[in-house]
């Protein structure tokens, strides 16, 4: 078992080394055995020469996987070789479709604006109250890759509304950074997978200032709480735009965190007034 684990680590290490043979790594990693020993696992050289065959802890292997920039499948290859349980990916296939359907049914019972989201912050459904509040068209009219919370937050319309005052801009900016930190936290094990890197690259290419905010968004801490959102909502009776404060509430519908229903709860009297006017 020990040699199987070591072989799995070496297979990934050699793969990373080959990937960067003709180009420079952003952090100047060389992915050598000595570097892995010095940077992450001080006993690695002893493993290689047979001086130690003590099985490492799961956390040690996760640290090695982080250094080797493992994709989720590679990380699980190493964990399984050491007879640890693999990291479980999100729902896929029929299981995902069933969970999404359950989330949609839950969303439809809520008296608040709500959407159905997955761990990628992809919006899969939105109720009528949400569409009215945010003044967005039916999701069917929006390109699939743009149906994400990050795209909505960084849409020119919401940027413009956030510029009406310093407080509104600060609140909007805080929520953009929180959403990005949340995305990074929920998808930490996927950060070297192709879909993750393609998503970030596409956002950087298509959304102004996305890369600036992305680089500023440090890793989320456990103590961080989702900020109260200030949004501008239009009173249907007068057409007046009012600043209202709302808070996001996440409702999981299965044993996994996602898919989930994100409901927007009113925080102040202005929000409650607008919500009452939007109700059918």
Number of helices: 13
| Overall domain count | 2
CATH topology of the largest domain: Beta-Lactamase
Q: State the total count of DSSP E strands.
A: 5
SSE ordering: HHHHHHEEHHHHHHEEEH
What does the main sheet amount to? 5 strands, antiparallel
N→C terminal distance: 63 Å
The backbone outline, from C-alpha atoms, is: elongated
Strand residues, percent: 5-15%
What's the CATH C level of the largest domain? Alpha Beta
Name the poorly predicted regions.
none
Query: Helix share of residues?
Result: 40-55%
Strand order of the largest sheet: 2-1-5-4-3
Oligomerization category of the chains in this entry: single chain
Structural class: alpha+beta
Backbone CA Rg: 23 Å
**What's the architecture of the largest domain in CATH terms?**
2-Layer Sandwich
Mean of all residue-level pLDDT scores: 90
Domain MmyB-like transcription regulator ligand binding: 107-227
InterPro entries: MLTR_LBD
Protein name: MmyB-like transcription regulator ligand binding domain-containing protein
